[in-house]
Amino acid sequence: MSSGVENIHPSESRLLPPRPQKLVMAIALAIFTGGVVLLSKYGWRQSALFIIGGLLGVSLYHSSFGFASAYRKLLVNRDVRGIYAQLVMLAIATVLFAPVLAAGKAFGQEVAGAIAPVGISGAIGAFIFGVGMQLGGACGCGTRAFFSAIASTSLHGWVWIICALFGTAVGINPSC
User: I want to staple 167 with a disulfide (CB 3.0 to 4.6 A). Which of 129, 137, 159, 161 is the partner?
Assistant: First the structure.
């Protein structure tokens, strides 16, 4: 019995409406809810930050916003919109964080930059992480990468998450 999908030309496949992935959404919602509940023992702020980060991650995932994809679009299509978005984001972050770091305090909490030397293990870990990011075709930052790796039905997302975890483990191990 034919579903009719195999007769569609690859360029026409983008015109098909997306299929709802109920199981993936149920698992993601369960993980999200569990994270909010587990973080609530550390105070409402941690849960609120987790919710904000999760929602931003989902929106970045659905908009295909990412550092690697922006440069890929620049090189392949000469599309600079992603680079402009990154520059605007960097400018806003600088304007917001510079005074906070200079003051040393924000909302009653001590704030300081994390400064540490980077060794060979950090360079090797970053390289492995970057290879996984390029193979996965995703941005290697935060929740967006997590959602794209877990929600992906292709091998790319799983390659990314394996390389990301391995690269991070190597990067934080000072004995490498």
Answer: 129
